[in-house]
Amino acid sequence: MMDAEYDPKTESTYECLDCGNTVLSTTHPGECPVCGATFRNRSMPLE
Ligand SMILES: [Zn+2]
């Protein structure tokens, strides 16, 4: 069942805010290898 708590073993999609590059990772990828901007977790709902 889905849990509201973040599961670190689950892969999340991170999207670069600057160039739109995406990466699937279990941990935050840090900086975009293409442009050096910061990735954002796309699975996190915008509020
Ligand atoms: Zn980028």
Low-confidence stretches: none
Helix content: under 10%
The end-to-end span amounts to: 24 Å
Number of helices: 0
What is the tally of beta strands?
A: 3
Order of strands, widest sheet? 2-1-3
SSE arrangement, N to C: EEE
| Sheet/helix structural class | mainly beta
Relative strand content: 25-35%
| Bound ligand species | zinc ion
- Taking all Cα atoms into account, the compactness measure Rg is 11 Å
Largest sheet composition: 3 strands, antiparallel
Q: Characterize the overall form.
A: elongated
What is the mean predicted local confidence, pLDDT?
85
Question: Would you mind describing this structure in some detail?
Answer:
The chain has 47 residues and is an all-beta fold. It has a domain of 30 residues. Helix content is 0%, strand content 26%. The chain has no helices and 3 strands. A 3-stranded antiparallel sheet has the order 2-1-3, with no helix packed on it. A hairpin with a 5-residue loop joins strand 1 and strand 2. The chain is elongated, with a radius of gyration of 11 Å. The termini are far apart. The chain binds zinc ion. The site of zinc ion has 8 residues, from loops.
